[in-house]
Design brief:
Elements lengths: L3 H15 L4 E6 L5 E3 L2 H8 L6 E5 L2 E5 L3 E6 L5 E6 L8 E7 L3 E6 L6 E6 L23 H8 L6 H4 L11 H11 L12 H20 L40 E5 L2 E5 L6
Helix pairs in contact: 1-6, 3-6, 5-6
């Protein structure tokens, strides 16, 4: 699943091609992708709106239109492709936006988990998903005190807690492993047992890891692409994730893999005792 760096990278690619362009038409071939409002309302309301600015919130792409915000969650395998107008629709291309330069933007999703919402501007912060999201990794309010308050009653493993988007938003399985490795924290430690110094390390290494991943265009392990034919490069810099059986770059111990609440988790048994 694309995490914060991948979502930021895709958003920047879209902005280059679509900023100040108008949506003149839209066709939806798989209605469940439209999460809010109804598919019919979505189609009627989005037409003739201009895409004015592009940003992200957690793992959501946020496109500011004239009257609404278009929110897109890529989920597992959602991708955007540009096509010439009226080209034949390819398999798994479920939503097609026609742009005022006669170009089309196709949303492809093989597994059909992606979702789109059209939220009125005055309701953006009054309804999901924004009401359910925690702090961004770069938010000045993300402090050790904030994390302690959020985690004080959580006995779940810290690996699981960092995936909770209501605490820190944007972290997924790949970067979770990398952050905990750099912080020398075992993934199984109960979240409420971490010291203030350990919480501060998590914040520091979250920013370091995500910043580097953004510079590298994200991580391509399976089939993530930021645009057609373009993959991320951060997989070349991973310390532990997918490195099972390899030597730890810090101490030389063999990197191991285990399941934590069903999620494949990579760690160094010596650095993260």
């Amino acid at each position: 699943m694309p995490e914060k760096p991948e979502v930021i990278t895709v958003t920047k690619k879209l902005e280059k091609r679509l900023k100040n362009r108008k949506i003149t038409d839209i066709k939806v071939y798989y209605e469940p992708i439209i999460d809010y409002p109804s598919c019919e309302e979505f189609i009627n309301q989005i037409k003739e709106q201009t895409m004015n600015s592009f940003s992200t919130r957690g793992k959501w792409i946020v496109i500011e239109l004239d009257k609404d915000y278009l929110l897109v969650h890529l989920r597992m395998e959602g991708k955007f492709f540009f096509r010439e107008k009226d080209v034949p629709i390819e398999k798994h291309h479920h939503v097609v936006f026609t742009i005022d330069n006669q170009e089309e933007l196709h949303f492809q999703d093989v597994r059909k988990f992606g979702r789109m919402k059209l939220i009125p501007k005055n309701r953006l912060y009054k309804m999901p998903p924004f009401t359910e999201l925690g702090l961004e990794p770069w938010d000045n309010n993300l402090t050790a005190h904030y994390l302690r308050e959020k985690l004080k009653n959580k006995t779940i493993p810290i690996k699981t807690a960092l995936l909770d988007q209501s605490i820190i938003t944007g972290i997924g399985n790949i970067y979770d492993d990398e952050i905990l490795f750099l912080s020398k924290i075992n993934p199984l430690i109960p979240a409420n047992r971490l010291s203030e110094d350990q919480l501060q390390l998590i914040i520091k290494n979250t920013i370091i890891t995500l910043d580097k991943a953004i510079r590298e265009g994200g991580t391509t392990i399976r089939n993530y692409t930021s645009e057609e034919g373009i993959t991320g490069l951060f997989q070349n810099h991973l310390y532990v994730h997918t490195r099972v059986g390899e030597a730890c770059p810090h101490c030389g111990a063999t990197i191991m893999k285990m399941k934590v609440n069903g999620r494949g988790t990579y760690y160094c048994p010596d650095c993260q005792k």
